Amino acid sequence: MQNYAACINLTNSARSVQLFKIDAFTATREKGQGSIASTRTSVGGYDWVINYHPRVWFSDQYWIMFRITLDSNGTGVVASFACRLVDVVDQTGGGQHLGSSSSPVPAAITSATLSKGQANDVYITTRSKLASSGYLKDDSFLVECVITVLIENRSPTQDAAAAAANLAPTTTSAAAAPPSDLGRHFGELWRNQKGTDVTFLVSGEPIAAHKCVLAARSPFFMAELFGDMKEKASQHVEIEDMRPEVFRALMQFIYTDTSPPELQVEGKEEEEEEDARMMAQHLLVAADRYGMERLKIICEEKMCADISVDTVSTALALAEQHGCSELKARCIKFIVATPANLRAVVKTEGYAHLIASCPSVVHDLLLAIMADRHK
């Protein structure tokens, strides 16, 4: 069975995730088409302004629109801007999670090459569709905005200069500093549970943590525990759509910034390898949900190294749903590599689920097949 080696990331990027709560939706219908709120953030070495436009006339309807503007000196800055509605379930006391609305609205994304003062707009949904969806609760709704900035790779000349600088003689102190043990200390804090101030009920299982640690590591937890969401004043947060072992692995990474041992397969039995494969899939979803970009890449690399007829359909569906471009490319390449691969994948249950959940992938597969035939 053919497998690919671990992913090699050929592009560098910086990413920022912001979660916004929008109140008084009904009242904003009286506003004009301008921005009524804005915030600033820094991504990829550049300053950005995010503006909220509650009522923009576009394509014969009024839309909810967000705009990013480059506010730093620079030209040719390549960036993407994605926005999606976040569903908060049971505002009065239940758990919260993403995308469970009975009328799901897909994420909207756009990209552009910008200079200082230039902007890019994302039209999330129409006002009428939002008003009738499950995302609007008590005249409020949540929006997650993601800015991704492409960072140019250094040229070979720049790499050679950097290597030469690293080889240059330097003055060292008599005693070298030991490696950082910050992760070890925070890992001990997580394990001994001292000073915890929030408990997550994950599918009914209590898991305690420290609010400040979670907020420092995750923009979602920052908004949930210290923003305007209802969990700010609560010491208990319900999460019904995640397995406890997945949430514990997420916590372990948050506290230590090291790859969870549950992802390691070396020296394990076949059943344990399957557990590691499933953990990578679930952790990728959790990492995307909580804005843990490094963990998301770790899981993506693990899944890239484990592509086969049995796993490729599930991996491709997750790549499409959670914006993993490298994993998606590897999966498509595997499927169209040979006619035998394509026939075998189409016969799997995972492929049927892929087509049902991500029909747009069919178009990408057809394009890849046509491109392969014209080589």
UniProtKB/TrEMBL annotation:
Q: What Gene3D superfamilies does the entry give?
A: 1.25.40.420, Apoptosis, Tumor Necrosis Factor Receptor Associated Protein 2, Chain A, Potassium Channel Kv1.1, Chain A
Q: Which CDD domains match?
A: BTB_POZ_BPM_plant, MATH
Q: Which Pfam families match?
A: BACK_BPM_SPOP, BTB, MATH_2
Q: Which Gene Ontology biological process is one annotated for this entry?
A: protein ubiquitination
Q: Where is the BTB domain?
A: 196-257
User: Quick one: which pathway?
Assistant: Protein modification; protein ubiquitination
Q: Which PANTHER family match?
A: BTB/POZ AND MATH DOMAIN-CONTAINING PROTEIN 1, OS06G0668300 PROTEIN
The similarity comment for this entry is: Belongs to the Tdpoz family.
Q: What is this protein called?
A: BTB domain-containing protein
